[in-house]
Specification:
single chain; about 525 residues; alpha/beta; Rossmann fold; Beta-Lactamase; five-stranded parallel beta sheet; five-stranded antiparallel beta sheet; 17 strands
């Protein structure tokens, strides 16, 4: 069946056409009554479905023209409308010769059945009566209703405009502001070019105002400094788009002006504060860096300069000890010999301390050279050195194979050397000493650990663990200078990692570290 649809609403036209075509009907569609009449005369349809309120020729006029034309007078005609829904509208439709009057919206399946039924039945259509009076009445009623609606809409829009903080304005083709909302009267008579000339300096300029005026195109948030009659300055943001007259030609701009004084001044103050803060941070960072470098240099110099006197003290004391222990040397009291031994031990301890301080300064100065490192192989080398130094010592050292990381091989050797020597030292009093090197996790999140079953320590004092010269055991109980763990922490931090420990007195200790940036919580490894 050939069905002609006259509907000015594109969505309604498309929906109805698609539904009818899905039922196998051939469909033609027109956006107004005049085009629909032309299509009907070009090829007589089996059914005409028409809206009422349309441009050019409305549905009533189309129905009248169809019934008046010999070629089309017998074609079934159905009104499908959402605007003309009064009983008098329906009465006029039937007076003009319509076969069916349907009101939108209608369920699509029911609508199609109604249309197919209207097309198939041979209705005896009334001869169109003189319905001019009724037609004029209905049009007048609809026009009055539409005028009332438009007036209400106009009032609503005016209320919105007056309630808004923005100013609204309209220019003619020469760019002169000729109409404004009530609050925007100070803009009347000004030109867009004059406003663009007030553009605020120092802000981003995405558009060239002169080019905007030449090309007559939309623009947004052009910020200007508008100096008022009292000398004060209001910072305004202009936005607009071209508008067209009834002939479709561009007739000027319609836009808004928003007072953004507070916002812009707040942004400028914030920008100034940020710049000042950046300067302070840079200055403070430079000062701290200089102080840190000066402190490192001082520490290195002092440590280096102490080496000579300490070696002299230790050397001369050693010579004196040798001579006093030679055969035939008598008369020296035991207390004097004991004092000499104290001097020797203290000098030796100071030498070790100075060496550790120099090492601490050295690892801070060394450039970091990342490369693949086999921690398992490093740990095995260090374990072999420890066993060879004390071959009689019984200690089970277990090293997990394949501990591959990215880091500086020289610095990581220092880390493992200190941690393994500590584990070796503090597990010495244990009858069946055990040391374990392993990892948990993978990649940058891997946690490397060195665990022993030695004497352990009290976690209440763990905050002192990585500070230089702080020792958690009594002097003379275990040897050492208190520098080793501070050295470990500095190296791990240079690798953007973390180092921490877990322990209990008498239950051993576990030292853990990560390498590389990590923001996730670290696994808890039991001691």
């Amino acid at each position: 069946m050939h069905i002609l649809i006259a509907e000015d609403d594109e969505n309604s036209r498309l929906m109805l056409s698609t539904a009818l075509e899905a039922r196998g009907h051939r469909v033609q569609a027109a956006p107004d009554g005049r085009q629909a009449l032309e299509l009907a005369l070009a090829g007589t349809p089996d059914l005409i479905v028409s809206d009422i309120l349309m441009p050019e020729l409305d549905g009533y006029g189309l129905c009248r023209a169809v019934r008046a034309h010999p070629q089309l007078s017998g074609v079934p005609f159905v009104f499908y409308t959402a605007t003309f829904t009064d009983r008098r509208d329906e009465e006029l439709a039937y007076q003009l010769g319509a076969d069916l009057f349907l009101v939108k919206p209608c369920e699509i399946d029911k609508l199609i059945l109604e249309l197919e039924s209207a097309a198939s039945r041979n209705a005896i259509r009334p001869v169109p009566s003189d319905a001019d009076a009724l037609y004029a009445e209905r049009l007048r009623d609809k026009l009055d209703k539409k005028i009332t609606e438009l007036e209400a809409e106009r009032t609503r829009l005016r209320d919105f405009a007056e309630a808004a903080a923005d100013w609204f304005w309209e220019t003619d083709m020469d760019g002169v502001i000729v109409h404004t909302s009530d609050g925007a009267w100070p803009l009347r008579g000004l030109t867009l070019n004059g406003l663009f000339a007030m553009r605020r300096p120092g802000l981003p300029r995405p558009d060239d105002p002169a080019q905007l005026a030449r090309e007559v195109r939309s623009f947004r948030d052009v910020v200007i400094d508008w100096r008022q009659q009292d000398g004060s300055v209001r910072i305004m943001a202009l936005s607009a788009r071209p508008w067209r007259d009834a002939t479709g030609h561009i007739a000027g701009y319609r836009g808004s002006a928003r007072d953004v004084s507070r916002q812009v001044r707040a942004e400028e103050e914030l920008r100034a504060l940020n710049q000042e803060l950046d300067e302070r941070v840079r200055s403070r960072t430079a000062s701290l860096k200089a102080a840190f470098e000066e402190l490192e240099s001082f520490s290195y110099s002092v440590s280096h300069d102490l080496r000579g006197p300490l070696r002299a003290i230790h050397g001369f004391a050693s010579v004196l000890d040798t001579e006093l222990n030679s055969p035939g040397v008598t008369g020296l009291p035991d207390s004097a010999r004991d004092s000499l031994q104290r001097i020797l031990r203290a000098a030796l301890r100071m030498e070790h301390l100075v060496d550790d301080l120099l090492e601490l300064a050295r690892v801070t100065r060394l450039p970091l050279q990342r490369q693949p490192v086999d921690l398992s192989a490093l740990a095995q080398d260090i374990a072999d050195v420890l066993r060879n130094a004390e071959p009689s010592r019984q200690c089970d050292i277990r090293i997990q194979p394949g501990l591959l990381v990215a880091g500086d091989v020289g610095l990581l050797r220092i880390v493992l050397d200190n941690l393994l020597r500590n584990a070796w030292k503090f597990s010495a009093p244990t009858a069946h000493a055990q040391i374990e090197v392993g990892s948990e996790g993978k990649g940058q999140q891997a946690v490397i650990y060195v665990r022993d079953n030695g004497v352990g320590f009290d976690m209440a004092h763990a905050d002192k663990l990585f500070h230089p010269f702080n020792r958690l055991h009594r002097d003379g109980e275990f040897d050492g200078t208190g520098i080793g763990l501070a050295l470990v922490q500095r190296i791990i931090r240079r690798h953007n990692g973390r180092v921490w420990a877990r322990s209990e007195p008498g239950a051993g200790a576990t030292f853990c570290f990560t390498l590389g940036d990590t923001e996730t919580s670290l696994p808890s490894i039991a001691a």
